[in-house]
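Q:
My hope is that you can spare some time for a protein that puzzles me. I hope you can help me see how the letters and the tokens relate. Thank you; the sequence and its tokens follow:
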Amino acid sequence: MIEIATEVDLFHPPARIWRALTEQALLAKWFAGSESLGDRTLLRTGGLPGYDADTEVEVVELRAPERLVLRCREGDRSTRLACDLAPIGHGCRLSVREVLEEGDWDADRRTEQHQRAVTGRLPAILDWLAFQEVDLRRAEGGLTAELPVVRPGEARGRTGRLVLLAAGVLAMLGVAAGATVWATRPAPTAPAAAPASTPPSSLAAPATSSTPPRATPSRPTPSASRRSVAPSPTASAAPTRTSSPSPRPVASLAASYETVSDRVFGYRGQVVLRNPGPAAKQDWTVTVTLGDDATVSSVNGAEAKQDGAVVTFTGAAVPAGGSTTIRFDVRDPDLSATGPEGCTVDGAACAGL
């Protein structure tokens, strides 16, 4: 007796894997087309490596979504094929075991076909199903917008996004209040004795707190109003006081990272940029550091350039009080990887990592 055994760990629930094993339309995408023959099924395996003809399949045992056993007749060859699903910490372990009962076969070619189908094409179709069920954003023209919808799925990470959105609204309210103070500030003049804290320098200096800085300049002091009535005769001698008012500062961007879906060999990441300032942020750079041998693809919302493990994203200006979302796929051979090793916006760390 000759048998072939293949085993793979999949980052998917049993129900999704079971669909790929048993639904004809999905089976055709990763293994072979099929045709119903009453109580049997004909698999179009004639052109596949390791197969000499199409295969007639009869169900011997069916226990959804745990075990599927088939008796397969391919010309003068007869085999028994068993598929078993066992839950593990991050998904399921699929074990496929085919035993030769009659005839002969090229075991090496058959083994290669098993490995290609089970460890390559099957994970790809499962990822495709997961994108439809979990991560489809058709209204936003997302990366999977062209895929057909099979069934609605759960919304992932929604609570975290709502919390971040609320924080962004509060930040914008604070900026609006600061902008009002700016508009009512009288023009500075050259005093004979400047106060200890001068408004222009405090506006130009970046904030040192961990939260994004806001454009909230210091309020004018009473002495500044009195000096506007009686200007100093030596005002022209102070060049820093006679220069034009400083331009309105632009607040730094705030960024948050989220892994929106896991895949067999990688994940889909998302970075949301928010501009709490009163003016558009024209130039910005988001840097994401991946694991070794990981690659990024299918970028939406920005331009991307990868240099080794570092991916640099740039894009259009982020409007005042607005946001920009960057989504990207990462293929990572490290099965334990569920996100990047680092993320920054203009050198400041992203939230969420």
In short: The first strand starts at residue 2 and ends at 10. The first helix runs from residue 14 to 22. Residues 11 and 266 are 10 Å apart (CA to CA). The chain has two domains: 2-140, 155-187+212-217+249-353.
